[in-house]
Amino acid sequence: MNSKQRIPRYLFGLGALALAAYFLLVHNREPIIFFASLFFLVICVTDTFQSRIPNLATLSLVLVGFGYHLWSGGLPGGATALAGMLTGLALLLPFYLLGGMGGGDVKALAALGTLMGPADIFQVFLLTGLIGGGMAVVHLALAKNLKRKLEVWLASTWLLVAIHHFPPRQTAAAAASADKYPYAAAIAFGYFVFISWGGLI
Fold this sequence. Notes:
The chain has 201 residues and is mainly alpha-helical. The protein has helices spanning 3-26, 31-50, 55-97, 103-116, 118-141, 146-163, 169-177, 183-197. Helix 1 packs antiparallel against helix 2 (31-50) and helix 6 (146-163) packs antiparallel against helix 7 (169-177).
């Protein structure tokens, strides 16, 4: 990663971290917001500085999500948690298969879906896409190998559309892995926008 790319990376990551800390303090009596904010507090640190989202953090949120919904709503609540997890997983899985993001990002949205349910996680996904798109534009504009990244992405998309075949993960992800921007921050921004102002549709 070149020095220019480090600036937006840390700005995005630390901005999301600050929001998580704020919501954690202000909404500490609201269980869903509290646990989601705590989750983002952890993963925004690890994704910004280590380019990884720990499985332990993701699994912990899944257990909290199922536990909360089973306690508050019984078996129907558990079904809501399961549907939210599967929805979050399905929404980002295609981007992972195309090499556009890491598995930790997919699991993070799925874990958040466990806590929020299917309808709300879909709204967060839409907001995250808009915010993450803007972050990606800034990130790519500062990339040294922008042309190569676009070639790999276009080739991957052509394989999927033309012959219904996903490219090997190691090939599709190779160009992006070295300077991947912290997508945990995009998910966090999407979540906090949704909590503050509601969804897009």
